């Protein structure tokens, strides 16, 4: 159990580690931000298609995988409609610098972190002992650029650097809470584990296709972002392969 909580905690801490370098910047170029977003998207796609989906199939069947994946996509769509939030903008330096936009952006990060934390917790709760480590590694790795972008967005919107670091860290804490929820849910209802794995995969793929890929291709950096996406995908596959 200590190993499990260490893995869950590590994914959360990676958000703070990623936020630290942002304290040295007042802004980042469009190309740099798009490359980070695309790299994150590649990692999340690999985590879903190379880890969560195959594991869900091993524990169940195609019908359960389909139901869980569609449910994850539907729930994320519903949350996006119900919870006020602000997406990453193509021109953050021209955005209105007020507390409302910052709070809305943090709401968007919360939407992203919930399925990530759930996927880690559910993976640790499955019968596949290696899956939890693989998913925790993939989520932790993509949390680094995500933490950087979160803190940088807040700084460019007028928040103090320490405040931006604290708020970015809190998004990681929310992910830790979701991890605990996923772990408890999977532990008490073993039959639900494949649904949970498929749900997490669907939610993460929703975030990638709805948010990360469009944002990374919005400033004329499509080619660089494409290569960054592929590099992130291969990086996660390589790390997963080495852990097996």
UniProtKB/TrEMBL annotation:
| Alphabetical list of Pfam families matching this protein | Zip
The UniProt keywords, alphabetically, are: Cell membrane, Membrane, Transmembrane, Transmembrane helix, Zinc
Q: Which GO terms describe its cellular component?
A: plasma membrane
Membrane topology value = Multi-pass membrane protein
Compartments reported by the entry: Cell membrane
Report the transmembrane regions from the record: 35-53, 62-83, 163-183, 189-212, 224-243
Annotated GO MF terms: zinc ion transmembrane transporter activity
Q: Which InterPro entries match?
A: ZIP
| Protein's UniProt keywords contain NADP | no
Asked if the record carries the keyword Cell membrane, the reply is yes
Designated name of the protein: ZIP family metal transporter
Q: Which organism is it from?
A: Paenibacillus mangrovi
